[in-house]
Amino acid sequence: MKGFFITFEGVDGVGKTTQVDLFCAKLEKMAKAGYRKLREPGGTSICEDIRDILKQGTKLAPIAELFLFNAARNQLVAKIIKPALDAGEVVVCDRFMDSTVAYQCFGNKLDKKMVMDVIGYAIEGVTPSLTIWLDLQGEARRQRAAASRGGLSKYDTANEEFVAAVREGFVQMAIFHPSRVKQVSASGTPEEVHQRAWDVALPHLERWLRLEGK
At residue 213, does pLDDT exceed 70? Predict the structure, then answer.
């Protein structure tokens, strides 16, 4: 890929959306090429419609939910992510395939091979260049999750056992993909977390940045 694809991941309440906003604000000042700020599910009108359906998560069968997430993902990859990367842009996405593995395999206990097969068709060979895994546990995460309530209601209100299972999914992906998935503590102020994430991403991003601005 000519461009650079970075994703932000983590359980609900760690502050992904805030960090994506802060990250893109810095890219706005520094990137030589253009950049795209995206979220999953979402990013196109069709994907946003699917997002609205997924917000009714308690009414969906688990496999139906899996297919809807990946239908939106394929649309986003085909219409926005691939063309942007081919044009040499930086793409920043709030969630991507790692969330599906963590939530559906580890949280919802769906068959891993089935989940990975579905993801494989959806992403069309496009994988992140770098994944920032924002990690936060305990009361701090619960308070943030309660304050935001901006995601899919089914997962916003998930019990701690489910959240722990999903976090274990991210732990395993960091173990199996250490060159791509980087754990970043989400404790502290948004600015402190942003600086940690930026410090991790900068060595990978230097090709696309005006280095005198760092």
Answer: no
